[in-house]
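Reading group handout, session on sequence-to-structure problems. Before we discuss, look at one worked example. The prompt was deliberately terse, the way you'd type it at a terminal:

> structure Na(+)/H(+) antiporter subunit C

The input record follows.
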Amino acid sequence: MTSVFDPELILYTTAIGLITIGLAGVVMSSHLFRMVLALVIAEAGANLMLVLAGYRWDAVAPILTSLSEPAAMVDPVPQALVLTAIVIGVGIQALAVSLLIRIRQRYATLDRKEAAERMDSEIAASMGAARDVSQDAPLGERPLPPIPADQVNMRGGDAP
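And the output record:
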C-alpha cells in the first residue's frame, strides 16, 4: 500500500509538474527570455524523470569493492545520460541567451511578436519588397470574387 508521502510518488509528481510548468511557460509566454527559462524548467523535469527511471529504491551505488556476490545496483546509464544532457543543456542555454542579447540590441525588444514584425520589416526592406502586413487580404492585383447578394443577406449584412 502506497502512502501519500511516498518519496517515489512525490519525485515522479515533481518531474511531471516541472515538465508541465515548462511546456505551459513556452506556450503561454510571449517574452523570449521567459520562454528560455521555461525550457530550462522543462529540461530539469525531463532530467529528473530520466534519473528516476534508472533508480532502484532497494539498490546500492554501482561500485564493486570485492569479488563477492554484488547486491542489487542502481543503473548508471540514465545518470550518465542526464549528466551529458545537463552539459548540452547549459551550452544551448548559453547560445539562446547570447541570441536574446543580440535580438535585444538590434530590435530593442524581447517580445516575440514585436521582434518578429521588426525582423520581417527589415528583411522586406533589404530585399526592396513590400511587406505583407495582412494575413486576410490577398496581395497583388487579383480581385476577390463578388459575394452574391443572397449570401450577403443570409449573413445579416446589407447588399452593396
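Points for discussion. First: The first helix runs from residue 7 to 28. Second: The chain is about 60% helix and 0% strand.
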